[in-house]
Amino acid sequence: MPNLVRIHLHPFKSFDPQRVDEAVLLPGGGLEHDRRFALVDVHGEVINGKRTPAVHLLRSNFDSATGRLVLRVEGNAEEHRFDVGAGRRELADWLSDYFDMRVTIVENAEGGFPDDTESPGPTVISSATLAEVATWFPGLTADQARDRFRANLEIDGVEAFWEDRLVADGLGVVRFQIGEAELLGTNPCARCVVPSRDARSGEPIRQFAREFARNRQGSLPAWAPGGRFDHFYRLAVNTRRSGARRCALRVGDEVKIIGIA
């Protein structure tokens, strides 16, 4: 029986995930507090792992109830504590020093800053997929694969690449339900350079994208929507929501595919 086994939120875009047992699906489609904050440079460009590898060395812990953020640099035990509300300028100054560039913190509490603005809902992957991908790279563990691919919702009780069932082989979308929330699966998620790097050190795996695509193509299930893969450096499924009311997703919720819309 497919069920929701993990929920990961990323309160600060590109920072460490926060594992929670329950999350609220917002009317706009995103999860409350996910990618709520982002760092931008003087040109308004987002500072992320794609463009700024130093992001990988930041360890973070954010308490959404209090607005307190704790940061430290990998390999250094010293913790730096900030009030993201009242102390936002102090936080921006610390980050500016760390990145050696002027940093501004922007916030969108209602929709966050998703990579895919047409499908801003939570990304979905299965536990079995992460375990399978880990076997493609010597020494990689499922936990490390999880950290690299940064999906919001993880489904258990299913086979590897089960999430590809949430993508229609055509112009439609797949309606599915997790607990009381109804979502629409739209497309397999195209990946960037970030998964090629260790999530904590930034150390890259050489030829990662090429090896990944080769294995992904070779492992594509017969029932997968092959026509939706213009390339095979894709993993997890992007979504948007169906309906507009706030509703909760909880670990343990059953996952049901309703059909193609």
What does this protein structure show overall?
It is built from 4 helices and 15 strands. The chain is globular, with a radius of gyration of 18 Å. A 4-stranded mixed sheet has the order 2-1-10-9. A 4-stranded antiparallel sheet has the order 13-12-11-15, with no helix packed on it. Strands 5-6-7 form a 3-stranded antiparallel sheet, with helices on one face. Strand 11 (174-178) and strand 12 form a beta hairpin. The mean pLDDT is 96. The chain has 2 domains: 3-8 and 117-260, M1 Pyruvate Kinase, Domain 3; 37-107, no CATH class. With 261 residues, it is of the alpha+beta class. The longest helix is centred in the middle third of the chain and has 12 residues, at 88-99. 15% of the residues lie in helices and 30% in strands. It has helices at 88-99, 127-134, 142-149, 208-219; strands at 3-9, 18-20, 22-25, 37-40, 58-63, 68-73, 80-83, 104-107, 124-126, 153-156, 174-178, 181-190, 234-241, 247-250, 255-260.
